[in-house]
């Protein structure tokens, strides 16, 4: 069995930083004296250890490291040998974002200029792909594979990333089997108006940059691909005119065949993954509430098999099959319910999981492995909790040797962080309503002031059990944080998701009010001291909450907020929503400009309801936002002023739909803290 023979502090070869070694769930003891509040920067800065990835042999680990005031860098270490660490990649004007091992001697990694991410946009694309590099573990033979979009920056990194390699309209699709020098990238092909039409795959040699065509298969609007372990395309999915088509290329075959066509808003199943045997896995709704389960695709019936492989009661299947390489043999499945858990098909790995869980109880312990079948198995463990951003360990199983790679955030004391709870309550119409609450550390039983924090999307899942910066920041200032998974949210069944369609400002808003009422009745919250806050759709719901339920909220903070839903239908370079979304998705999920009368729209428009908003308002927008253009903010500001309620209003330069720069995050957090204290305390 596993045993700790000793730990080792991993130090940067450059002598810049020492990472914390740990042998237990927490290395920091609670302070006996009253501690000062952590500054906002402690919650919003980059992680110290952002990612750790084992090499194919398990001998080395690639680490993306953050450091205050310096761009994120890529290090490669042999943790068994103290001091055996190299800086594989670092730029003075670019940040390393993600990393993959192509083989034991070659890595690929993505980069962005995070100081300009908000302005580094492109016509018709909601998210511009990052640049891609390859490099040897020792930092030699650095090569640009996909150059960055835009012309900002003058240092070597920017010039190299923008003047060499494939055109910026490519993205990494598949990293291969751990052998060979090729990856699969996709070229983004646009319409004449600039919108994305298709993703065309091609092989790319990471050593010499040579391109090789991939059997392209079905022509047309193919935007999504699944590949097997060797990087062979097996599934192609297209989206056009409100319909989705799936084409399949069986192992050993050259021809593609159409296996399904359906309305993508009412999909009978969703492609999920492919294993080493060429089996297609899909998720499909089950039962009256339409909970998504994982199952195999039946090529004879052209639909999902009736018997699910994985079912999580009350939660849609969200997770992945675990394998050593993409598309490889399935070793287990990772599932997210309220928190993440893992079920291993391999008995040895299941026993190791049980042992790690026993050592670190009450935490999520994510195991991955290399050399998984043999005596030389190496584990990488990422262990985290709601109060702890987590820490990484590497384990030599045969030697029973644990090596601490470091804490994700060194300056976060778990003892001072807040607890996160999950409940299911009843909405006013009887619908199940999942609700998260984050309770300040050491809080007494007496009701406390609260922030109702509304997630964006809105058609996403809002939270999972983990350490989350904004909720923890607000809790550190003494607020109970309430986060409902209101109808329209994903993750809790198709019925819950679709119950939010065409309910902006209506039933979706009532769910938020019901969550507040529940928290007040439970004794968690002082009902006279509640503010509502959120970004994007959450900002929209904030403003609508102040208009529809003024008795509940003392104030509201809305950033990058939709203030007039009809503006989402406008076609301009400032609006990155596609024509496909405006024609087929928004009319069914939000409202129909042609069929719904102006009065219907006025009821769900914060802009039209501005005169009803009497509570104090904080508004913040990015001047380069292309998802919710700045006009949403200026119109709302002017309407509130005209109604006699002058809001606090801030525009952040060179920021898009959300804050990327640390200085922006800290400035807004401090503004929010001051605003809440002024009106709740």
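Q: What amino acid sequence fits the structure above?
A:
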């Amino acid at each position: 069995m596993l045993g700790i023979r000793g730990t080792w502090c991993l130090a940067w070869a450059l002598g810049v930083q020492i990472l914390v070694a740990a042998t237990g769930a927490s290395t920091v003891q609670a302070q006996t004296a009253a501690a000062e509040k952590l500054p906002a920067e402690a919650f919003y800065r980059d992680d110290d250890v952002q990612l750790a990835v084992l090499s194919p042999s398990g001998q080395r680990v690639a680490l993306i490291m953050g450091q205050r005031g310096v761009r994120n860098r890529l290090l490669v270490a042999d943790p068994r040998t103290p001091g055996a660490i190299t800086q594989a990649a670092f730029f003075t004007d670019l940040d390393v974002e993600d990393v993959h091992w192509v083989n034991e001697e070659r890595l690929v990694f993505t980069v962005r200029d995070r100081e300009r991410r908000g302005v580094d946009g492109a016509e018709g694309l909601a998210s511009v792909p990052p640049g891609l590099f390859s490099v040897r573990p020792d930092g030699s033979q650095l090569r640009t594979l996909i150059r960055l979009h835009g012309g900002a920056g003058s240092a070597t990194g920017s010039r190299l990333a923008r003047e060499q390699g494939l055109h910026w309209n490519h993205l990494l699709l598949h990293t291969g089997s751990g052998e060979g020098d090729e990856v699969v990238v996709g070229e983004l092909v646009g319409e004449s108006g600039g919108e994305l039409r298709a993703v065309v795959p091609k092989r790319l040699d990471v050593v010499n940059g040579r391109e090789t065509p991939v059997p392209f298969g079905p022509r047309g609007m193919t935007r999504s691909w699944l590949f097997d372990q060797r990087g062979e395309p097996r599934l192609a999915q297209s989206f056009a005119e409100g319909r989705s088509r799936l084409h399949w290329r069986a192992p050993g075959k050259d021809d593609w065949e159409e296996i399904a066509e359906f309305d993508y808003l009412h999909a009978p199943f969703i492609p999920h993954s492919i294993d080493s045997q060429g089996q297609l896995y899909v998720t499909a709704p089950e039962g009256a509430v339409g909970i998504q389960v994982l199952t195999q695709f039946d090529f004879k019936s052209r639909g999902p098999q009736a018997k699910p492989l994985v079912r999580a009661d009350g939660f849609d299947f969200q997770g992945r099959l675990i394998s050593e390489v993409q598309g490889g043999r399935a070793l287990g499945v990772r599932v997210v319910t309220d928190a993440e858990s893992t079920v291993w098909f391999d008995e040895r790995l299941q026993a190791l999981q049980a042992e790690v869980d026993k050592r670190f109880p009450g935490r999520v312990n994510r195991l991955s492995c290399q050399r998984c079948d043999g005596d030389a198995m190496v584990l990488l463990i990422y262990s985290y909790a709601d109060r702890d951003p987590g820490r990484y360990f590497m384990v030599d199983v045969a030697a029973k040797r644990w090596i601490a790679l470091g804490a994700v955030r060194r300056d976060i004391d778990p003892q001072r962080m807040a607890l996160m709870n999950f409940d299911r309550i009843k909405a006013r119409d009887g619908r199940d309503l999942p609700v998260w609450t984050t309770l300040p550390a050491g809080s007494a039983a007496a009701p406390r002031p609260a922030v109702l924090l509304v997630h964006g999307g809105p058609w996403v899942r809002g939270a999972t059990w983990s350490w989350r910066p904004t909720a923890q920041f607000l809790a550190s200032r003494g607020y109970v944080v309430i986060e409902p998974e209101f109808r329209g949210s994903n993750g809790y069944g198709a019925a819950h998701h679709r119950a939010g369609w065409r309910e902006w400002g209506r039933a979706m808003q009532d769910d938020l009010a019901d969550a507040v009422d529940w928290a007040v009745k439970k004794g968690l919250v002082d009902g006279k001291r509640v503010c509502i806050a959120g970004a994007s759709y959450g900002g929209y719901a904030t403003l609508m909450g102040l208009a529809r339920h003024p008795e509940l909220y003392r104030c509201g903070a809305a950033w990058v907020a939709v203030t007039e839903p009809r503006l989402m239908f406008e076609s301009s370079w400032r609006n990155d929503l596609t024509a496909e979304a405006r024609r087929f998705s928004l009319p069914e999920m939000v409202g129909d400009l042609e069929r719904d009368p102006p009065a219907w729209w006025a009821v769900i428009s914060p802009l039209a309801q501005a005169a009803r908003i009497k509570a104090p308002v904080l508004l913040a927008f990015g001047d380069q936002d292309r998802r919710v253009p700045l006009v949403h903010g200026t119109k709302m500001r002017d309407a509130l002023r005209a109604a006699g309620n002058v809001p606090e209003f801030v525009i952040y330069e060179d920021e898009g739909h959300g804050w990327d720069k640390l200085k922006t995050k800290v400035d807004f957090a401090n503004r929010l803290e001051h605003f809440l204290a002024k009106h709740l305390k």
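Q: And what stands out in the fold?
A: The domain at 418-680 is CATH 3.40.50.1820 (Rossmann fold).
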